[in-house]
């Protein structure tokens, strides 16, 4: 807000450019591109590098959490 209303032209340009970048990021990138690309890529979204896969296998984490097999009720 304050940058865009400044009397100095360069500062005003920075303010308007920043506001435009935030608006484009919030609407086009986050609302349209990310969901569309995740839909197109499918399971490849969840690819992990080999060291992280080994760590995950060693630690033994699961989506259900640690209390899943101990009489937990849903």
UniProtKB/TrEMBL annotation:
The record's GO CC annotations read:
plasma membrane
The UniProt record lists the Membrane transport protein MMPL domain at: 2-54
Which key words are in the record?
Answer: Cell membrane, Membrane, Transmembrane, Transmembrane helix
What is the recorded membrane topology of this protein? Multi-pass membrane protein
Listed Pfam families: MMPL (PF03176)
The keyword Chloroplast belongs to this UniProt entry's keyword annotation: no
Where does the record place it?
A: Cell membrane
Entry superkingdom: Bacteria
The main location class comes to membrane
Identification of the protein by name: Membrane transport protein MMPL domain-containing protein
Annotated source species: uncultured Thermoleophilia bacterium
């Amino acid at each position: 807000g304050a940058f865009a209303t400044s009397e100095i032209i360069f500062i005003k340009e920075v303010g308007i450019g920043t506001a435009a970048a935030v608006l484009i990021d919030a609407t086009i990138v986050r609302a349209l591109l990310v969901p569309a690309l995740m839909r197109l890529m499918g399971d490849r979204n969840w690819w992990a590098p080999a060291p992280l896969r080994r760590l995950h296998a060693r630690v033994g984490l699961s989506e259900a959490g640690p209390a899943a097999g101990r009489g937990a009720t849903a």
